[in-house]
Amino acid sequence: MAGSTAMTISTTLLLFLVLPAAISAVPADLNKDFIDTNCKTTLYPDICYTSIIAYAGDIEVSPAKLARVAVDHSFNSIRSIALYVLNNSGKFNNNNDKTTVGVLKDCNKNFEDAVLQVQRSNREIRYLDFSVSKEALLFKISNVQTWLSAALTNQETCATELANIKSELHDKVVNSKKFVSIALALVNSYAKAAQAN
């Protein structure tokens, strides 16, 4: 009898230790699968997945939360490049070449616009009010889509101009453009999901 009591206690303890881990593993896997599936709809699925997977617990399986994280991440990326340009602008034109000066000036303006557009997107998606009508929600999402698309165009213009200079700045702009592209793709997916509901 004492043996069966010990066995029951051992089994109960084992269930208390193993069962919560097994239960919590299921949602985490679902979250990762959700992120993986959505990232595969972007132009840069590997970058998307590796940059967003750390937020799987926050995202759960919500297209809205996934879009928010992607826009926030793209804003952090583009802001980081803007600071880099600001702190290193003299480094990119040591010989005072007029063509390079013009390209850097144009690129700086395009990039400033892109930063503002992604910042607007980030603010808009962060404070979406889900209690408003479907039409109002879709209008706000379309604002985010428009601003991200414009930011992508500005970044593309800058990257094209910088391609002739062959600087490390070009590579950084191209990299930040990938994050804005990912954010736009995931916002587009969110718009489809919101439209369907």
Question: Secondary-structure blueprint of this entry?
Answer:
Layout: H1 2-39, H2 45-52, H3 56-59, H4 63-88, H5 98-126, H6 134-162, H7 168-196
Helix pairs in contact: 1-2, 4-5, 4-7, 5-6, 6-7
Describe the structure in your own words.
The protein is mainly alpha-helical. The protein is 83% helix and 0% strand. It has helices at 2-39, 45-52, 56-59, 63-88, 98-126, 134-162, 168-196. Helix 1 crosses helix 2, helix 4 packs antiparallel against helix 7 and helix 5 (98-126) runs antiparallel to helix 6. The radius of gyration is 23 Å and the shape is elongated. It starts with a helix and ends with a helix. Residues 6-26 have low confidence and may be disordered.
The number of distinct helices, counting runs of at least 4 residues, comes to: 7
CATH superfamily: Invertase/pectin methylesterase inhibitor family protein
Domain count = 1
Mean of residue pLDDT values = 83
CATH architecture label name: Up-down Bundle
Shape: elongated
Q: Please summarize the sheet with the most strands.
A: none
CATH topology: Butyryl-CoA Dehydrogenase, subunit A, domain 3
Rg measurement, Å = 23 Å
**Which ranges are low-confidence, i.e. pLDDT below 50, for 5 or more consecutive residues?**
6-26
- How far is the N terminus from the C terminus? 59 Å
Task: Tell me the structural class.
Answer: mainly alpha
- Portion in beta strands: under 5%
User: What would CATH call the class?
Assistant: Mainly Alpha
Helix % is over 70%
The SSE string, one letter per element, is: HHHHHHH
Number of DSSP strand runs: 0
